[in-house]
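Apologies for my clumsy wording, but are you able to produce some protein sequence, whichever is easiest, and the tokens describing how it folds?
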Amino acid sequence: MSDESLDEIGVQMDSPAEVVLGVFSAIEERDPEKLFALYHDEVESHEAASLPYGGTMRGKAAMGEQLTTAPETTWLGTWDPLQPTEAERRMDPRVVASSGEEVVILYTQRAVGRGGERFEAPVIGLYEVREGKFARAQMFHYDTAAILAFLERAAAPEPAPSAA
């Protein structure tokens, strides 16, 4: 992953909320240069341990390495194949609260599985910005069991056509 500065890619962020919304924009646009430019070197991500990409990940370098060597264990590796269009990638992030360096965002996780099954669920995230960079993310999913069930159905092989 590139380690470009925000200035080099033409991104100006003035408030913690703008930094966090910039991260959402980079994710929706699948723009890794912008995303990693927004990350603090010691960025942390905390997801529910039950999810395929769950647990805690620390450090921009470690996140870049994981995306390169084990993408299937990342949020992007899990959801990207299930978000083929802008409609599924759209998260509609809304700032619910902001206090100092902390920002709370409500957003929608969307996907489409094989056969067209649609998934949509709300998520609350607590984010921290440090030194003008995105430093910490902790997501609170409404229903991790529903996420896991959808991911299991999405990963299941399609039934073979019947011989008539």
Remarks:
- The chain is about 30% helix and 30% strand.
- The chain has one domain: 7-155.
